[in-house]
Amino acid sequence: MNTIEILFIAVGLAMDAFAISICIGLTAKGRSFKKALVAGIYFGGSQAVMPLLGYAAGSNWAGDISTYDHWVAFAVLLIIGAKMIKGSFDKTYSASVSLEFASMMPLAVATSVDALAVGVSFSFLDVRIIPTALLIGAVTFSLSMSGVKAGNLFGMRYKSKAELAGGVILVLMGLKIVLEHTVFTAAL
């Protein structure tokens, strides 16, 4: 995978955190840099750690399933993307978010479970996990901070579109992996 592809995956993974960050921005009184920074740290940090954990777990299985690893990567990205697309149509989203550890940590973990699964799929591909995890974390950090600002300025009307875009990106990346492998195998 090249840097642009990983960047697209990072953006797709960050959309859940971005959507929640918008909600944090909705509850912010005035322009709150502190709220944006806290959201960025929680979400970006969690999104950087989870692919590492997934990669470590997947590396233990990589030798056993290398003949169908591209299908595993495709399935993981398809399931995650489909879940995000489905979630983008959920209109019952609550905008009340606290910055306390007891609220933020579960949100950070919940929004990065997808990154854990993607980390597993990365272990089956030729991906340098440390720079990839750092890029995913940095993208999520930036988008989370931006989400707080956007929520503060624009409100909830863009939440579902962001999550929909993230899901579509992940599904398309999964299709690309399968198509590349199929074309490469057919060429042999």
Layout of strands and helices, then pairs:
Elements: H1 3-27, H2 33-59, H3 69-87, H4 101-123, H5 129-154, H6 159-187
Helix pairs in contact: 1-2, 1-4, 1-5, 1-6, 2-4, 2-5, 3-4, 3-6
The largest β sheet comes out as: none
Principal-axis shape: globular
| Uncertain spans | none
- Supply the number of structural domains: 1
Structural category is mainly alpha
Tell me the number of helical segments per DSSP (H or I, 4 or more residues long): 6
What order do the SSEs take from the amino end to the carboxyl end, as H and E?
A: HHHHHH
Over all CA atoms, what is the radius of gyration?
17 Å
Mean pLDDT: 80
Number of strands: 0
Give the helix level as a range of percent: over 70%
Q: How much of the residues is beta strand, in percent?
A: under 5%
User: Kindly, what is the distance between the CA atoms of the first and last residues, rounded to a whole number of angstroms?
Assistant: 20 Å
Describe this structure in words.
With 188 residues, the protein is mostly helical. It has one domain (3-187). Helix content is 79%, strand content 0%. The protein has helices spanning 3-27, 33-59, 69-87, 101-123, 129-154, 159-187. Helix 1 runs antiparallel to helix 4 and helix 3 (69-87) packs antiparallel against helix 6. The longest helix is centred in the C-terminal third of the chain and has 29 residues, at 159-187. The radius of gyration is 17 Å and the shape is globular. The mean pLDDT is 80.
